[in-house]
Specification:
Blueprint: H1 2-38, E1 51-58, H2 65-76, E2 80-89, E3 91-93, H3 94-108, E4 113-122, H4 124-129, E5 135-137, E6 142-144, H5 156-162, H6 186-211, H7 215-221, E7 226-228, H8 229-235, E8 240-241, H9 244-253, E9 262-264, H10 278-287, H11 297-305, E10 311-313
Parallel strand pairs: 1-2, 1-9, 2-4, 4-5, 4-6, 5-8
Antiparallel strand pairs: 3-10, 6-7
Length: 322
């Protein structure tokens, strides 16, 4: 009986230990969850006092509904006295660039807006920068790449190697062209070229209007070339060299109070289907020094894989051609 009592006590002790550990983990999760709501206040949008709003536009550009809503709130917020767009983007979809361009122009009609270029403002990134009334870039920033591109793969060779024969029945010759599974007919290539030319003319018209160029000068600069900040200043693609301090100085020249703080307007992280909200996980990863891994893999790479349609994007391609 004494031995049985000892075994029962050991079992009870293990159960108590398990539940203690579980309680500690639950409490820790609760603390992290709460921290996601009460930390980093300077990274959430909405401030009930006069300030300069800063908005980051980085990475590949899409028609981002959340960003458009945030820009609309900035437009209507009387506490926002000026806006700094911090741009670091290679571009993205033409539709995404167009939507953000129009949102920025609406803000600029009510309050001064300046673009501050970091490493890169190319293609649709430069389109958005041109929506502001002043563009500031670093001397070594990359600016330009004015143009439009439509890319599509051809899997015919791969499918032949796999022994796959793709067939289709279409209502008309141009339906679903290019189809990725064979050679593109000349009529389809001509159709795509017409779309590209039309969007390209529209993009050049934006640059001509916003930068005050003659059409001939725009055509000269809009050959897809990229420029350093110094070259861009010389060619009139930007207005000043410098960083955020120069952008702030321009806002002050427009009548913005020099004592106002600059506040970052950033979307509040949304909850997902996991136990922890995104903000809590990001906070925890930051504390343990793994901040760069806090974003899900799908979020880091999914957007680039989802690019579709006509693009205004800058990237370096290999010189090797098959």
């Amino acid at each position: 009986m004494q031995a049985d009592d000892i075994i029962d006590r050991q079992r009870l002790r293990r159960k108590v230990t398990f539940w203690r550990i579980a309680a500690i983990l639950i409490a820790a999760i609760g603390v992290i969850w709460a921290a996601s709501y009460y930390t980093n206040d300077d990274e959430t949008s909405g401030f009930a006092y006069d300030h300069i709003a800063k908005v980051k536009i980085d990475g590949t550009i899409f028609e981002d509904e959340e960003l458009l809503e945030r820009l609309e709130k900035i437009e209507d917020d009387d506490f926002v006295k000026g806006v700094i767009l911090s741009i670091d983007s290679p571009g993205g979809t033409t539709v995404g660039g167009e939507a953000i361009f129009e949102a920025v122009r609406k803000i600029a009609e009510k309050k001064p807006v300046v673009a501050q270029v970091g490493t890169l403002a190319a293609s649709a990134g430069y389109m958005i920068a041109s929506a502001t009334d002043q563009i500031v870039a670093r001397k070594s920033s990359i600016v330009g790449s004015i143009g439009v591109i439509f890319q599509y793969p051809n899997f015919e060779g791969l499918l032949d190697n796999l022994g796959v024969d793709m067939r289709s029945i279409k209502s008309s010759p141009m339906k679903a062209e290019p189809n990725f599974y064979g050679d593109t007919p000349p009529e389809a290539e001509a159709m795509i070229e017409r779309m590209i030319v039309d969007s390209y003319d529209w993009f050049k018209g934006i640059v001509t209007e916003r930068r005050g160029f003659e059409p001939e000068k725009t055509a000269q600069l809009a050959d897809g070339s990229v420029f350093t900040g110094r070259q861009a200043l010389e060619n009139g693609l930007i207005d000043q060299l410098g960083g955020e301090d120069v952008a702030r100085d321009w806002l002050i020249e427009q009548g913005v109070d020099q004592d106002l703080d600059t506040k970052l307007w950033k979307k509040k992280p949304e909850r997902n289907n996991f136990l922890l909200p995104n903000a809590a996980m990001a906070w925890f990863m930051k504390q343990v020094g793994l901040e760069s891994l806090s974003l899900p893999i799908a979020e880091q790479f999914g957007k680039r894989l989802a690019l579709d349609g006509m693009l205004s994007i800058w990237h370096v391609q290999s010189a090797e051609k098959n």
